[in-house]
Amino acid sequence: MHATLLSMHTKRADSRAIRIAEHAGAVLFVTVLTAIAAQISVPLPFTPVPFTFQPMVVLVGAAVLGARLGMTSQMLYLALGIAGLPVFAASPILPQGAARLLGPTGGYLMALPLAAFVAGCLAERGFDRRYLTAVLAMACGLAVVFAGGVLWLGLVVQPASGMTGALAAGFAPFIIADVLKLLAAAAVMPSLWRLTRR
Questions:
Q1: How many CB atoms lie within 10 A of CB 113?
Q2: Residue 51 has pLDDT above 90, yes or no
Q3: Burial group, residue 168, by CB count within 10 angstroms (0-12, 13-18, 19+)
Q4: pLDDT at residue 100, as a whole number
């Protein structure tokens, strides 16, 4: 099992209490970044799902934190949103709060903790140290996000349209842009590891 960037940094701490505080601060930082990324949102006229930078922040954050802490950061994000804080993507038609999880973006949101766990788990195994394996790790996490979102659209939100309609609304408009974002985001982790080694 390889170390994550966070565990490499915090193992130098003098006490367990300091390590716990550093871990808690890192989780909170990724949670806040996730909320900020959700606000960079572009509504599209042909789908109820907006375009955001959120998935890339989730995946990079998970690679830094590791599986359990990465998942925790996204569970905290969802908890804040369910509690009514305006952390979900701004929308003139979709409500903030717990009701957002019942709408067209609910599947994507509920998939974030699992996506973070998958990407973080692969990072713990060293996938984030080289570009191609970092791409693979983040692609696995992104696949979890899309699977959750498309299944929710097809089975719960728009069952009359079926999975074909769900793919047309929740996958096809985003996949090219998300792959390009993923290719850029995957370069972050190997670069950070090179800086750490220096």
A1: 22
A2: no
A3: middle
A4: 92
Among residues 1, 2, 5, which one has the least CA distance to residue 188?
5
End-to-end CA distance of the chain: 22
Q: What are the structural domains, with CATH classification, of the chain? A: 5-197 (1.10.1760.20)
Q: Which residue has the higher pLDDT, 155 or 9?
A: 155
Range 122-129 average pLDDT: 94
pLDDT for 12 equals 67
| Contact (Cβ atoms closer than 8 angstroms) between residue 61 and residue 37 | no
**Position 76: which residue type?**
L
Q: Is the dihedral of CA 50, 56, 58, 59 positive or negative?
A: positive
Asked if residue 108 lies in contact with residue 149, where contact means CB atoms within 8 angstroms, the answer is yes
Amino acid, single-letter form, for residue 69: L
Q: How many CA atoms lie within 13 A of 146 on its CB side?
A: 20
pLDDT score recorded for residue 13: 62
Residues 6+ apart with CB under 8 A from 48: 93, 94, 103, 104, 105, 157, 169
Full-model pTM: 0.92
